[in-house]
Amino acid sequence: MHVTHLTGSRAEIGEAHGRAHADLIAQSLEAYDRLFQDFAGLDWATARLEADRFLPMITQGFPDILDEMEGIARGAGLDFADILTLNCRSEISLTRASGGCTAFALHRDDQQWLAQNWDWRTSQLHNVVALHIDGEAAPSLISIGEAGMVAKIGLNDRGVGVCLNAIRSRTCGEGLPIHVALRKILESPDMDTAVTVASRDRVCSPAHFLIASGDGQAVGLEVYPGEPGRLPAERGVVTHTNHLYAKAATSRVEDFPRPDSRPRLARLDALLRERLPTEGAIGERELFAILSDHDQAPLSICRHFNPDQPAEERMETLFSVVMNLTRRRLTLRHGKPCESDESLTVQLTEA
């Protein structure tokens, strides 16, 4: 993989994104056409109509991002409705389907880390892109995500970073779509502003956002259309998989996690206790080793192909990210972290 550097106005950033990754965006549309049919019984045309109802929410909460979506569509030779639908894919499909994903925040030796495996359908493996975005009125940021989408997992030059865990729930209300909210968080100048995206703008469908900053702050936010459930750091650690467990969220939202979500969380907590020292330097190697764990395989932290699952439910680890927010450094392993130590590292200059 390589990093695609995008600069200029929202429209210019979007158009360059669309031109650079037109083929991958087209493949993403095909992948989600199949996914929407598998999970929601919707063809692409009907999914586009579903996405229309989120347009007023984006117009209210983050109108500038629509210029970028329009630019992506122009650059890729697609309709704006296609890019809107792609960026609302969680709201259209994840009310009926859940992904994997294992994430944690860790503060050690004056360094704030964020790390995660992103588990999803194998069809999206080669549609993953690394975007370095230098906008005109926002922090410089890195987003690792899917071609054609405005953001997913990453960090900015102010030291703010975010990870994502999917939550399966039938809840969907008023607020920003998940991936639009993630981009607004990545444009936040500080931790308080990032958290405000979830607490004031709100997120229209459930997910878990793990937000941290280079000065040592971290919090898990179980978002939904109401006030998010908060998971404060305990001894510098926040962990999450794919079920809700903050009381503020569980009392308002019913989720339907996969049976492996709780065992994965317990395994992650155990690994962080057992493998990492409470003092002394650690680095990317140690954290990628945790993300490579195969206990309880095939439903492990590092997820591999499982032929025993129904075809539409098969998820694999498609990439792993380790971020040092204090040093503004992101390291990516494309594919399963256990299969290679070859990685892509991006270093942002501190603002």
UniProtKB/TrEMBL annotation:
Keywords: Acyltransferase, Transferase
Listed InterPro entries: C45_proenzyme-like, Peptidase_C45, Peptidase_C45_hydrolase
Organism domain of life: Bacteria
Molecular-function annotations in GO: acyltransferase activity
Gene3D superfamilies, sorted: 1.10.10.2120, Penicillin V Acylase, Chain A
Positions of the Peptidase C45 hydrolase domain: 108-337
Annotated PANTHER family: BETA-ALANYL-DOPAMINE_CARCININE HYDROLASE, PEPTIDASE C45
Protein name, UniProt field: Isopenicillin-N N-acyltransferase-like protein
